[in-house]
Amino acid sequence: MTKLYNDPTDFREELIEGFVAAYGRFVRRVPGASGVMALGAPWPGKVALVIGGGSGHYPAFCGYVGPGLAAAAVMGNVFAAPSAEQIYRVTKAVASDAGVLYCYGNYSGDVLNFDMAELRCQEEGIDVRTVRVTDDVASAPRGQEDERRGIAGDFFVFKIAGAAAARGDSLDEVERLARKANARTRSFGVAFGGCTLPGQSAPLFTVEPGRMELGLGVHGEPGVQSSHMRSAREIADLLLDALLAEAPSDAGATVAVLLNGLGATQYEEMFVLYKDVHRRLLAEGLSPYKPIVNEMVTSLDMAGCSLTLCWLDAELTPLLDAPCASPAYINC
Amino acid sequence: MGSSEIAGAVVRRWLALALEVITAHEEELGRLDAAAGDGDHGATMVRGLRAANVAVEKTSDGAGRLLIEAGAAFSDAGGASGALIGALLSSVGRALGEGPYDAATVTKALQAGLSMVMRLGKAQPGDKTLIDALKPFVDALAAQPADQSLMAAWRAALPAAQAGAAATREMVARRGRSAKLGERSLGHPDPGATSLVYLLQAMEAALTEECA
Description:
Chain A is of the alpha/beta class.
């Protein structure tokens, strides 16, 4: 249950205000728009990475705004894509002569609104490109990878694209690297309990006691399959079976790993799970690179977690390692 | 509805009634959406209609202009429904222009709106979207005898929209957010088609009040 709010219809507005009040050392509000931009942006000569989506997923999306990451984030209402008008205003605020890359999870509302904003910007002569994150293997079968939705894999794609932009890469190059990062990133999740929109009395979905949902979405969409509850070790195997079967064809042995909490799952529980994830990765001959066990893309108060693997190579690793400073992720 | 003032009054009244009926069904629409999607449909529709109502308060234009304003305001609610319903209202408004507001002109305007929504959302009939209620309605409206009043034609076409929305229960989503869950969407009517029927019913009520 979402407990802290005043008028639920003001939820987005109040969260933006509080976020900017707390993290004014990184970000400021985009004047007249539902979004935040990095303090120093626009950055002349550098591609502006603009990310965004519905609220309810913190640190996605506003938590990843800052040097080395996104120039701005457009913030929709809870679980609703931001409107094309808001995306347009935020883009105008941070666009540089080097162009703009839109990066967001692949959901129809986001696609509709970002595409409309992209068209409008292009009509005004701003070069805007788009890379949609499609890491969730549960959401569409192999062969339809472009149809998949974006979940915690957002983080790796944003980080890599943001680092390329900060390095001064051209728009063509930033787009290519973001696409490559997405093509090599896979996620799969489990949920143990639903989430509740602010002001509503019942969760969007429930999980029966003793059961769990496989392949859940970050909007509280129920999973693609229901199962009896398993031990942490069995869940680790189940997550990895799903991901390893989907390894990209040119996969090497080094993988960035993110075990992501969805909002109401305790950190120590995730470490227990990670122990088995780590052991299995080593047993498979893979080498986990700077693993992250944290909440990086959440779903309000949903109980559950997802595992993301990003198969690295000599080109992607330095971008993942590059410095950045944002409210939710600092790498120095 | 004959004159431009009357048509404008009907549009305002329709938006007020639509907000009332969608607010009453907000939780139901959210639950339908949550069956296979993200559960924001009811909240987004309420937000869009609130903004549309505020937008038409500020202007005394004719029906076409009012719908364009309402559509722009509705779009800013975000989400897929904000973009699609906003574009529907605006494109109907543009096609309607200064009237006349008879059944034939309104039908043509709705046909323009339908093709705009299909182009934007890239959805076809049978994909389990609002198109499955809107297209049967527009087709039924076009099939009414030419000499019918707008109200009579609207009322006669409504059952086609209701049947279309009910039929989405048996469909598997191929577009929209619920498409990601494929078979899970089976057995629940599409929230977008369901809310569209409420919007069309609100217009019937607004037209009826105007005649009474």
